[in-house]
Amino acid sequence: xxxxxxxxxxxxxxxxxxxxxxxxxxxxxxxxxxxxxxxxxxxxxxxxxxxxxxxxxxxxxxxxxxxxxxxxxxxxxxxxxxxxxxxxxxxxxxxxxxxxxxxxxxxxxxxxxxxxxxxxxxxxxxxxxxxxxxxxxxxxxxxxxxxxxxxxxxxxxxxxxxxxxxxxxxxxxxxxxxxxxxxxxxxxxxxxxxxxxxxxxxxxxxxxxxxxxxxxxxxxxxxxxxxxxxxxxxxxxxxxxxxxxxxxxxxxxxxxxxxxxxxxxxxxxxxxxxxxxxxxxxxxxxxxxxxxxxxxxxxxxxxxxxxxxxxxxxxxxxxxxxxxxxxxxxxxxxxxxxxxxxxxxxxxxxxxxxxxxxxxxxxxxxxxxxxxxxxxxxxxxxxxxxxxxxxxxxxxxxxxxxxxxxxxxxxxxxxxxxxxxxxxxxxxxxxxxxxxxxxxxxxxxxxxxxxxxxxxxxxxxxxxxxx
Length: 467
Known about the structure:
Elements: E1 5-8, H1 12-23, E2 28-32, H2 39-44, H3 46-64, H4 80-105, E3 108-111, E4 114-118, E5 121-124, E6 127-131, E7 134-137, E8 141-143, E9 156-157, H5 159-163, E10 171-175, H6 179-191, E11 194-198, H7 210-222, E12 226-228, E13 233-238, E14 243-247, E15 250-254, E16 256-259, E17 263-265, H8 272-275, E18 279-280, E19 284-285, E20 298-300, H9 311-325, E21 339-341, E22 346-351, H10 354-361, E23 365-371, H11 376-380, E24 387-393, E25 399-406, H12 409-412, H13 414-421, H14 426-431, H15 441-450
């Protein structure tokens, strides 16, 4: 089979690249081995996980908010089989949607496992070879499993295994306090599990803003999530009907352990060595801002080839690779990459954290924090935990970052993304008009706080000038 552009992998980066190439007029083939398109994200990652997040949020509202708003209901209870039906239905709708988009754009889906046999050919185990002029590699990532004694127990599952559960575990240990671990810990605590997080670093979500991580830890502890930070797991015993997890001189019993210790790029057994595409088994495929690999007619996008392991960065990289494969000149700008975390409370950031801003700009940094308790819409919704933090440099006023923890911040972060992409100043954000009463007002208000012009908070008294 001959085509202009072959895409290896049908996840967010791959299917986006395939659709965009087809829109630009090329004959496009996408090779995907799974029975459904959409990759990890749609099938066994962000989409089913966030469907559970929605169930957990509904439980929270029923438990904590409906009564305050004057809505009387019976004590709420989780119907886990129905929650799973909802999750599976959402996944089916999304993956079927991608297949429909392929048909609408004329992309041919070749089902099977692909491997490069030369710089212009991909062999497919269940179909004829695909020859191409340009190619995009979008093979994604896989869960990593650390070398801990006993971790091969079937009771030690990765995110895919946890999403497949048909019963809520009474006791869940989460190994790893990163984004995946914290999201599942938050979900299952709301579902009624006793949850313990074991994390080897000093804070949860270690790459995020320290204040946000501190607030998340505080709220987790209030909700009864046991945190063991700066702690390593030593060994795991499977007692036959449970696990005994040993860490930091302690141990705890669990029905299930989630192993959430990161993901590695899927780059092995693709034939990359034979065709001269440079890669590192840990870091992934080497690709520039155009997403070109060391073979100029082959591109790589998404988890298999980048620092960001996010579906939305894969979407953009897929577009960029497709346009460059078709002779255009597009680049990926990582300045405004939103980082949503679907815990309770939600966290979302874009740009620099406060620590990164001070490291890069020294004393020329100003920060403004606006709490949700001072936002009317948050008060109406009974969601007043957290705040919005605005970070800018003071020489020119350029916005450097936005960090938020609280209600619906994963939706609100887009405002910060647009501002950073436009290289906006904090004055642009602070002086703009925000609809009232809305949660989005808090972004403007944080900018006003940073400028010392807060309206709905007392301004800090300025230090007396030195004489």
